Amino acid sequence: MPLLFLCFLLQFSSLLPASSAAATGGDARSGDSIVFTTLGRSYYTFDIFTLPADGNSYPSTEIQVTDGQSVNFNGHFPSASPSPSLISLLTNQSQFLRPDLEVVYVTERNGISKIFYDVIFGGTGISARRRSELEIPHRLQISLLDDEQENEVRVSFKDRPSLSGDYLVYVSTHDDPGKSRTSWAAVYSKNLKSGITRRLTPYGLADFSPSVSPSGIWTAVASYGENGWAGEVEELSTDLYIFLTRDGSRRVKVVEHGGWPCWGDDSTLYFHRRGDDQWLSIYKAILPSHGEISPDSVKIERLTPPGLHVFTPATSPTNKNLIAVATRRPDSSFRHIELFNLVTGEFKELTKKVSPNSHHFNPFISADGTRIGYHKCRGEGDGRKSNPLFFENVRSPVSNLSLFRFIGSFPSFSPTGDRIAYANFPGLYVINPDGSNKREVFSGAAFSTAWDPVREGVVYTSAGPDFAPVSSEVDIISINVDDDERNIKKLTTKGENNAFPSPSPDGKWIVFRSGRTGYKNLYIMDAIDGESKGLHQLTEGQWTDTMCSWSPDGDWIAFSSDRDNPGGGSFDLFLIHPNGTGLRKLFQSGSAGRANHPNWSPYGKVLVFTTDNAGISAEPISNPHHYQPYGEIYTIKMDGSDLHRLTHNSYEDGTPTWSPRYISPVNVESLYDEEPCGFEDCHWLKQKKKAHNDIRPVLTGPRCSP
């Protein structure tokens, strides 16, 4: 064994299991900041749009309904209200002209998910628009979501609002089920007259995609039963239930295996499911008019043929012959909205005529059947510049902690906080926290970043493909980003999937994962000369130890591992001393659960990580591409206490990092031209051509293990 590495072992051999970093309690800082990545989210810039339902669509007939601020999605045209005036009820005005357009939708402005109700009078210009936010305290404030309660901000994800009569029905994630890997998504109703909010979903269950029947009496949902979410990343294994809108009673299962229900009338449901031929198609369920309702008494009929994916149906109570659907056809890379004629079985294209190279999501139809709504990326229409935000402030549920969504992947801050390194697939970049001075410092494929705590300007990264098999050529390199020559040094040389470098706080050593034995385990090497000075294998076993992070005081290394069930897909968080002692589990993710990318707070008492502990918040098909349609940012103290969920959305959040200094919770705009709509549709909707024009769907699962 080289003398230098023997010195390393002697240096850490005196570590005690109960080191100073194991002390309980939070950091002694008055303010902290966490930065993380959301796959594709920075490029969404969604708005609600509408087209005439007569099928005579062309660019000038498309109306942008929402105001171009933030991300606006999953709209609904309100049905007729039994109230004297729905508008007067929401706006405290007794007299209003009938608006040209009304829409209820979800918006993510100001860093928090909210439900808005837009009313448009006398045209479609912004000056003609009146807005009433549905969560103002004296109107429709959602219970349990006060802005401030005991120094905590109550945040949640909202989804699929429907405004029917006096009731707003919607999904919210504000209620913790108290069970690992269980979705927080539940359906609630708000009575606009009384102000009373009721939870309609029974505790212990999760409901998605609510739809209110034309009469307003019934609500249908896609729901998990007692077994809950099994980790699906494509179509959820949900069943359809109906219950009374007023209080959630008389709940009954009507369809096994189905999603995204919508009512044709009070006895007819449309929904999507993947058939045995693997195509997503629209089905019709006819509920019995008399007797007990159950899956056995409900008649099911497939409506759309194989050969294309058809999903997220929408109906109108006044035009029972047409439904609006989203499609992915084999000859298109884009998701489009079409009308499907229930009588003739024919499709009529709508959005492809207007914007053929844009994705269009989740159609909805006006009550009178004359307009089709949907959301899409607004691009740079109306003269607006739509560059993504460099830092997007996300409302934090914890006081004195600011949260930011970052435009790149694997961000890490320099020790003084004056620069950020990140991956861009391909390429590695360095940029200032104000978004200036962006520089590419490595042009090849790279992932994970870490700054040397002692040698100024030195960044470590994993050079090679991410999510690759154990034998893939990936090596740890160091880059001096202040050197005009871009001094790049390979610290590992055999390319056996060496990744996730994390330096010790004194800058002498690097811990990383390697597949050199055929399994991914943790190793420690010299920070300057790499493995040429020798290696210390920190962990050993026929499992995957990965995503390691060295604590600021040097006493602990946190990492993610599937060692409890190798190859089973479940990753938990562990701690170990650098000398190999003191191994203990910090966080149990649950069966097949994921806990990844741990990162230490600057004072070393708390870790931030990403996990699917909160299950899934929406049907994956309702969003653009995410490798895994889940993943929220959590923190935990290093004694395993005080687990805290920080983010609420239906996206894939990951690779969190702490800033060494507090960042004020304000958005920072990108200073560089970025493609405003640079995201992809769900990869598992792609089709490819086999032999002799035999077209079949391409079925893709989650990416390889970390």
Notes on the structure:
The chain has 706 residues and is mainly β. It has a domain at 31-40 and 387-685: Neuraminidase (6 Propeller). The protein is built from 3 helices and 51 strands. The strands form 13 sheets. It has a 5-stranded mixed beta sheet, with no helix packed on it. The protein has a 4-stranded antiparallel beta sheet with strand order 3-2-25-24, with no helix packed on it. The longest helix is centred in the first third of the chain and has 10 residues, at 3-12. The two termini are 30 Å apart. Residues 1-6, 13-29, 81-85, 124-152 and 698-705 have low confidence and may be disordered.
Describe the structure concisely for a colleague:
By secondary structure, this protein is mainly β. Helix content is about 5%, strand content about 40%.
Contiguous helical run count: 3
Measured as a percent range, the helix fraction is under 10%
Write the CATH architecture name of the domain at 31-40 and 387-685.
Answer: 6 Propeller
- How would a textbook summarize the main sheet? 5 strands, mixed
| Through-space gap between termini | 30 Å
In percent, how much strand structure appears in the residues? 35-45%
> Are there runs of 5+ residues with pLDDT below 50, and where?
1-6, 13-29, 81-85, 124-152, 698-705
Query: What radius of gyration results from the CA coordinates?
Result: 26 Å
CATH topology of the domain at 31-40 and 387-685: Neuraminidase
Structural class: mainly beta
CATH C-level of the domain at 31-40 and 387-685 = Mainly Beta
Counting DSSP E segments of at least 2 residues, the number of strands comes to 51
- What is the overall shape? globular
With strands numbered from the N-terminus, the spatial order across the biggest sheet is 48-1-27-26-49
pLDDT averaged over residues = 86
CATH superfamily of the domain at 31-40 and 387-685: TolB, C-terminal domain
